[in-house]
Specification:
Blueprint lengths: L2 E2 L4 E2 L4 E2 L4 E2 L4 E3 L5 E3 L4 E2 L4 E3 L2 E3 L3 E3 L4 E3 L2 E2 L3 E3 L4 E2 L4 E2 L4 E2 L4 E2 L4 E2 L3 E4 L4 E5 L2 H21 L5
Parallel strand pairs: 1-4, 2-5, 3-6, 4-7, 5-8, 6-9, 7-10, 8-11, 9-12, 10-13, 11-14, 12-15, 13-16, 14-17, 15-18, 16-19
Antiparallel strand pairs: 19-20
């Protein structure tokens, strides 16, 4: 099960894994390419996903982030108001900081923390970072459980 807020826009052909949360005012537009979202993902308020997007499992897309034609690996946080442009690829176990801009075609290696405009890898993820990623997606799973919208 999943939760899709009545004030979100989700294109007819967007595909979700189980236990996803889509908040109010998020727009998932599949009119210019397929949008695939894995399991245990949250797409927070005012996010825009457009043009062929693929998101792995256990991903948190923070408030007002834009993901345009990009690919995101498993176990990532995409920070508040960050932007991933066409052809960007984010490896697994990454944190893209709030406000970061990932340019077109940029490949972010797995286990990276990225900050800035344009986004640059500032360090590798620590065990604390990996716990933060887990805490983030698990917080939304708890929310889904409380709403009765969780599949074991």
């Amino acid at each position: 099960m999943s939760f899709f807020h009545e004030k979100s826009f989700i294109g007819k052909n967007v595909k979700f894994g189980k236990n996803c949360y889509v908040a109010a005012f998020a727009a998932l537009r599949d009119d210019e390419g397929e949008i695939l979202i894995g399991e245990n993902c949250s797409i927070q308020e005012s996010c825009v996903l457009h043009n062929s997007v693929c998101i792995g499992n256990n991903v948190t897309v923070g408030h007002a982030a834009v993901v345009h034609g990009a690919t995101i690996g498993n176990n990532c946080i995409i920070g508040i108001n960050s932007t991933l442009l066409t052809g960007a690829e984010v490896g697994e176990n990454c944190i893209i900081a709030a406000g970061a801009l990932i340019p077109e075609g940029k490949e972010i290696p797995a286990n990276s923390v990225v900050m800035g405009i344009p986004g640059k890898v500032v360090r590798e993820c620590t065990s604390d970072d990996l716990e933060r990623i887990k805490f983030s997606y698990e917080a939304y799973l708890k929310k889904l459980k409380g709403m009765g919208k969780f599949d074991e």
